[in-house]
Description:
Blueprint: H1 2-10, E1 17-26, E2 29-41, E3 45-49, H2 54-57, H3 59-69, E4 77-84, H4 96-106, E5 118-120, E6 123-124, E7 130-131, H5 136-140, E8 150-154, H6 158-161, E9 168-172, H7 175-182, H8 214-226, E10 230-233, H9 240-246, H10 256-269, E11 284-285, H11 293-297, E12 298-299, E13 304-305, H12 307-310, E14 315-318, H13 326-330, H14 333-338, E15 340-344, E16 349-353, E17 357-362, H15 381-389, H16 393-397, E18 401-404, H17 410-414, H18 422-442, H19 455-461, H20 466-479, H21 483-499, H22 507-515, H23 519-524
Parallel strand pairs: 3-4, 5-8, 8-9, 10-17, 10-18, 11-14, 14-17
Antiparallel strand pairs: 1-2, 2-4, 6-7, 12-13, 15-16
This protein binds adenosine-5'-triphosphate and magnesium ion (MG).
Amino acid sequence: MxxxxxxxxxxxxxxxxxxxEASVLLGLEAHAIRVEVCCTRGPAFFQMVGLAEAAxxxxxxxxxxxxxxxxxxxxxxxxxxxxAPADLRKSGAALDVAIAxxxxxxxxxxxxxxxxxxxxxxxxxxxxxxxxxxxxxxxxDGAERRGIHTAIVPRESSAEAGLARGVRVLxxxxxxxxxxxxxxxxxxxxxxxxxxxxxxxxxxxxLSEVRGQGSARRSLExxxxxxxxxxxxxxxGSGKTLLARLLPTIMPPLEFEEAIECTAIHxxxxxxPLDSGIVTQxxxxxxxxxxxxxxxxxxxxxxRPGEVSLAHHGVLFLDELAEFRRAAVExxxxxxxxxxxxxxxxxxxxxxxxxxxxxxAVNPCPCGHYGHPRLPCRCSEAARERYRSRLxxxxxxxxxxxxxxxxxxxxxxxRKAGGETSAAVRExxxxxxxxQNARAKRLELHGYxxxxxxxxxxxxxxxxxxxxxxLIEAAVNRLGLSARAFNKxxxxxxxxADLEGEERVRAxxxxxxxxxxxxxxxxxx
Length: 525
Ligand SMILES: Nc1ncnc2c1ncn2[C@@H]1O[C@H](COP(=O)(O)OP(=O)(O)OP(=O)(O)O)[C@@H](O)[C@H]1O
Ligand SMILES: [Mg+2]
């Protein structure tokens, strides 16, 4: 059908100017792009202006081939595509469909009015089919504010697009479908709301498989309840890796709002789960210790989220912490403090949320037996010192709980496994979180998890009695705690009280929290 009308156009219809609405991503933010196309008769060329990078410039090949499939040949036209605003760098292939539609409107095969207030998102294959692009959710989010009422997205992105609010979203499989819809010949299907059902992280096993290690298990529970970062220190084979991998199994299921943020981040990174198309489970990320700084915190020419953002609302596990590049670990300091990563670029700045629960594991020395109750440590003092110096002090200062994982007791090993299940612990974690949430609402706090409450709010939620104060003062003197570490003790004590359902923080809670800082001196010195 398009073939015959195209022939008529080429035979003598007027040429002109048209525009279509598109977007480019910078971090998690979508910026509005207007694709303006001017077509005149004349020696064939297809030029693109407006700070287009290689992948965008190559759109010309994909667009020409896709239009040829519709019977529209561009070889009699001089085509200029302007991507406005001109000062914003454009990358990626998501502008293809918008460029193709604007070209068709400029050569009069589409009514330019049909492109008004319609956001077109998608990459084109040479055969004219629509390929999914990254960051559908952030592109749709906020489209309403720029006057968009309808968005057309690739069919494969339907699950993600179905989470968007505000605009009507239609899905298409081919450019031909899009064109026929815009010509009013055939209606594209509307993307249904994606139903969100959180899934629990069971892949890593169940807490009931861990033998003994009561205090390490307890620290996992406290960490999950209050959102506290955690460091495990212990000899090889004591179960540090095993325990850390079980942390997601005791965290509450992902909430809808959290799932939207996680889906947006993973969509931009191109790491959405293939089966569901959206994130339904708390992420668990365990990057290898050879990870670069950009890999860990994010970066790149076109800013991409790093592991710390991919683990947002989930767990970031740094196993064998001493083996990580120091610069990479140090780069985590700012995100751990602010809960987000900012990546500065020449003209703009991208940011990604980054609030994972961080759990790290490390041996106490190179041979791993320093402090072992039965095995002697073979390391020299100098070797131990070198090993410790690989750990970044300022990073450790940001970890709320430092926990010793002793070797597993023989008696525990020979006993049948059968401790509490992840589900039972998760129930307590959920209750402790509800308790924090209710208090945050009652006191109008600026946050809710104890680990991330602003400092001013911390004072409102932890009133220490005289005994607790004496205890904590003694600990500061004995352990040489920094002001930050002192506050972390208070936060952890608040969570321990919440797990017991107590309104006030008592000395016993503070004492348990202080246990979690004793390693300060051991590990760092
Ligand atoms: N408390 C435990 N209960 C049950 N199994 C355990 C326990 N601790 C260790 N194991 C078993 O030993 C294996 C090794 O444990 P894991 O890898 O967690 O040790 P690790 O502390 O991380 O050691 P490394 O310092 O060498 O990394 C686990 O896969 C698990 O099978
Ligand atoms: Mg390990």
